[in-house]
Amino acid sequence: xxxxxxxxxxxxxxxxxxxxxxxxxxxxxxxxxxxxxxxxxxxxxxxxxxxxxxxxxxxxxxxxxxxxxxxxxxxxxxxxxxxxxxxxxxxxxxxxxxxxxxxxxxxxxxxxxxxxxxxxxxxxxxxxxxxxxxxxxxxxxxxxxxxxxxxxxxxxxxxxxxxxxxxxxxxxxxxxxxxxxxxxxxxxxxxxxxxxxxxxxxxxxxxxxxxxxxxxxxxxxxxxxxxxxxxxxxxxxxxxxxxxxxxxxxxxxxxxxxxxxxxxxxxxxxxxxxxxxxxxxxxxxxxxxxxxxxxxxxxxxxxxxxxxxxxxxxxxxxxxxxxxxxxxxxxxxxxxxxxxxxxxxxxxxxxxxxxxxxxxxxxxxxxxxxxxxxxxxxxxxxxxxxxxxxxxxxxxxxxxxxxxxxxxxxxxxxxxxxxxxxxxxxxxxxxxxxxxxxxxxxxxxxxxxxxxxxxxxxxxxxxxxxxxxxxxxxxxxxxxxxxxxxxxxxxxxxxxxxxxxxxxxxxxxxxxxxxxxxxxxxxxxxxxxxxxxxxxxxxxxxxxxx
Length: 546
What we know:
alpha/beta, Rossmann fold, 6-stranded parallel sheet, globular, TPP_enz, magnesium ion binding, thiamine pyrophosphate, Thiamin_PyroP_enz_TPP-bd_dom, acetolactate synthase activity
């Protein structure tokens, strides 16, 4: 068969249902093979958005999402998405076209070294130079993308190779059983945890990737250990659980960091060093038990003394069996004081009627409107910190935020992908006005796909997070202002519906109505960030106490 047909059949063998991307002259053969196969092509308005969608597909399913672009500018537009997937641990396969490699009549027109460009941003990248390599190359790209630690891979398919013929057939994917930790490491972890006085459980991004939620809930309930999470570990265990201590890496003065400082043992499940450090290790202050698929990457702030490497869920279950239950000498009184302070802080401001809306009220209204399995997709901005702290997730991967590359522009594309993965769930994108405008053209994609999707544009007419940091450094406000279109009319121009609430209560009503009425909705919501420093800065605990 033609190599492009073989490529598509190899994608189908991997379980691929849809491909995100933009067509180009150099991948028209592949496009035709996709059309003939029935594989779904989701045409986007920008390659970066296609990459964000593919990465989010991988994040939610554990199977590599696929995005397609042409050569030159199409491929370069995937660079940010490649970094997004690679740093975020999201399995994704990128496919780009290229001029014929045997004979081209266009010189160096649009030619850049795409493979060289992708090398530092991916787990693997290669050019296919023969149709005979297609089956093995596709299988290897998916294997590398999906195995721990997941990330991005890239295949370049030249135009003449796509037209070649081959007698090869797709290689069937295989089921890989992850190795389990050895008995000695489990026993060492059990002894370390049992002999501690104030052990504390931390849940990181790796636990969210493989959905170890059930085993960790059993661990928390049986062992009775308080727990907290990183931003990308939110929701692995229900955050309404009475032992939840909050989300780390917001500020050193936060309540959860008081609990961390008081602990003498941290059981660190699925920590990914790509995230901002949730705590800083110091010699002889506490013992850290590292549970992950691979050994710890040691750096100046993280050098765990006990390591348990292997399948996370299996290790958690075996350690819970070994510890058995709470130990009589455990003392969580300092944790309890911190949790009481956290609960009081999280209740503060959720009914604040000021408008532009107070951030805590924004989070509260979204939480009230969303069902437990609803998915909130955050872009990157000041509001992300408010959601990380105030939004209590009931299930894994229901608050999609990026604490790795932390790029702007991913919120709306991620929401579109989430809706495609889970067509029956409620999905909301929360975007700042800066991040929204970076990929706002994908409103047309959502409308064209006839999606039920709500986008909340949190508007402060500036780059709010950087403005806050500028102010915290004592610098004058400079370079942070921007202009915005009329977002209601902007939404309507795409065929969506626009809304402009004029009070906090009206926002809650509008959001609930949008979620129930179907179609694509954009809510223009001005926000009041004047309380950022008091609520999120280094003195957050003291401010809340007052």
